Amino acid sequence: MLRGKTILLLRPTIRVGAQSTGGMFEANGTWTEEARRNIAVALANVQERLDNRVVAAPEAYGDANRLAEEYGSLFAAVSASVVNYQFFKGNRLPTKKRDNKADVFDWSVGPGVADLPGARDADFALFIYDYDAYGSTGRKLLQVVAMLGPRIAISSGVHTGYAGLVDLKTGDLLWLNADTHMGGDVRTPDGAEKRVRELLQGFPGSKPDPDTAPAR
Amino acid sequence: MSPLWLSSGLWVAAAMLAPITAGAETLPPTYAELYKPHGVDEIGIWQDADEDERRLTASPRVIRDEALTGYVKGVLCETVGPERCKAARVYIVRTPIFNASMAPNGTVRVFSGLLLRMRSEAELATVLGHEFGHFQSRHSVKLFKAERGASDVLSWAGLLAAMYPGRDTRRMFGDLRYSVLGHYFRYGRDTEREADRISIGYLNAGRLRPQVASEVWQHAIAEGLASAAAKGLRKPRYDTIAFADSHPPNAERAATLAALAALEGIGRDDGAARYASAMAPFLPQWLDDQIRLNDFGASAYVIEHLAEGGWTAPLWLARGDLYRLRGNPRDLVAATDFYAKAVALDPQLADAQRGLGLSLIKTGRRVEGQAALGRYLALRPDAPDAATIAMLAKEP
Amino acid sequence: MMRRLPTRRLFAALAVAAIAISPGHAGNALRGRGEAVPIAGSNLTITPGRDWNSLGVSPGKMVEVWTLDGEDLNAVTFYAGIEAEMPLVREISKKRLPLPKFRRQTLLADIPELLEGTYRARRMIATFHVTGATPESFLGHDGIRFTFDYVEEDELPRRGEARATIIDGRLYMATFAGPRLYYYDRSLPDFHALVEAARLR
């Protein structure tokens, strides 16, 4: 059970914007800043209910910053492997398929994470990636007309996120969730709370959920 | 729905393309002190650029050499003036391609492959002035809007074509697609022309010889021809525009820049000597990075172009490596000759002794080759491959 | 100046994951402990001491990639008898983007540069260093063992080790690569065990 712990929140990668009629991403600075703020508050709230304390990783410079970035890249590579080779049906590695059957989730970024800035005063590290492209009015109109007319399904909006929890003593990945169709509007505090609850589905210590990673 | 829709769709198309050329000229210049981006699109693009720069500061590909970075920044400041220059932060990135960029937030990326190809401060100033031109004219935001406008129009038109799938509609969609995309790419080329004009303006007003600007593109043409010739490809055209080209043809750029260079500047210094001494410590590494891309013609051109100022030991070494790594029997004979010239100029150049030894052995001159490998090991006893080479040097 | 290069790593990882799962390519296969298997249908045979996965996609006809956790984290690449005048892996375009070739004159001492040139030309990377090379037998023949560092597009610095030998004019090589953070060190002994378990039939 994960309760009463300190969680180090590594600077989340957050991009929020609109999706133009033609499907291009339009970064929106105000939305991104709001989302960054809302998600931080929502995270603290959700974790408080689990008796966990969330602290933001300190801003790092020079070598410490490079180490943090390298771990960020490693975490991205590990997450891609988990999604690609253990979660995703079509392409699983045979050894990972067997892990799924035995309920084994064996991934790590190594004990070196203990050297990350801020790691000494925390038990776990939380990585968060969030990418939101809200369909613009033009895109929504296109979607409706396409459906009414030639019955072409055009997607409006992209809402992708993934989050992972790493044990700062061992580097073991305790939990990972990746979702390409997330709910909750991160531009509002309530929406961000909904988003964070979805993103943290199956988080260790939270209520068991049949839909939980890694058993998907 | 009536076919009227279709024509109103096209009308929408025209309306959406209109703002592309309008621009927002009433805004303060991007290099104003503590400039804040304006409008949703510019703010968004800046924030993206800030995030990119945050990662760039930690990137393992950035060459963190204060003297080199300071020198390149100095050339930029000399070109655009100290006030404007405050808006720029320069990063040298180890990537063996001919490119540089300036992001809307002032992040300047200069690739090592570009520094390898420039011959003088004036050439570097031409490229940096061009990038600064994109920056001060807000081309990123404008291109973004143009691309969005074009893709919006095509989405609607594509849908309408699907709704009225007659042959005429299809053809109209095809025509429209070409006209919209063509407009977008042409607009991109026009921003390049504008940046070229800004750049030559800076050079004319500065202390370096502006006639050099045209040479940057002449050399790019010559390198492209050399690369294609060595690969046995058809000669590339540098005087025509392919439909989707993002840039005007190099020949046109060279001609325009030559015409716009101020005549009174012709007697000015081009800063070639200062440039060469600033780059000297990095040249062997960057030459090696270039050679190993396996683009024989381009690499040979770059080496020979550098050697116009006189052949040095590192240049003979690079030429030897280029031929040895291609590895045809005649290449190995040529490489032997080039390494010998490097060694004659600088007997202490360990890598040249190594290349000489390997090439001699492969061309059947084992005894001489083993002697050269022995000299390599004596010069660099702790070389990473010392044990392997030692075995080769001793083999009967 | 010429091309605007996308520098967005953020979701590249997930995007790659999505692309790799396009249906239709041969699946990944188990290489079970204790079972002798030929590499890419050649006379090179491995009897692994633990379970590995062989990826369904391969970069060349005579090449097979094995992994424990995915090729970005630990990849063992077997080159099973590359013939003279051939590149190590398939060329994207023979004419426009040629790769360096294994030559008749290629010496054991040249092989690190052959691998380096292949990585650099194929992936357009600048940062690749051979950090060591020593004579060491492979498949019971005189061979070479070398180590290297490199950085690719994903900016995750990696480390590698390789063994190679030339038998009857053909190149046999096994390379191992993984992120220098944790993964390289963790699985290096597993690579060494595979090298010991490699035989020519």
UniProtKB/TrEMBL annotation, chain A:
Record protein name field: Uncharacterized protein
Organism listed in the record: Sphingomonas metalli
UniProtKB/TrEMBL annotation, chain B:
Cofactor annotation: Zn(2+)
Species whose genome carries this gene: Sphingomonas metalli
Keywords associated with the record: Hydrolase, Metal-binding, Metalloprotease, Protease, Signal, Zinc
Any one cellular-component term (Gene Ontology): membrane
GO biological process: proteolysis involved in protein catabolic process
Peptidase M48 domain residues: 90-259
Family, per entry: Belongs to the peptidase M48 family.
Any matching Pfam family: Peptidase_M48
PANTHER family, A to Z: METALLOENDOPEPTIDASE OMA1, METALLOENDOPEPTIDASE OMA1, MITOCHONDRIAL
Signal sequence bounds: 1-24
UniProt GO MF annotations: metal ion binding; metalloendopeptidase activity
CDD domains per the UniProt record, alphabetical: M48C_Oma1-like
Record's cofactor remark: Binds 1 zinc ion per subunit.
Superkingdom of origin organism: Bacteria
Full protein name: Peptidase M48 domain-containing protein
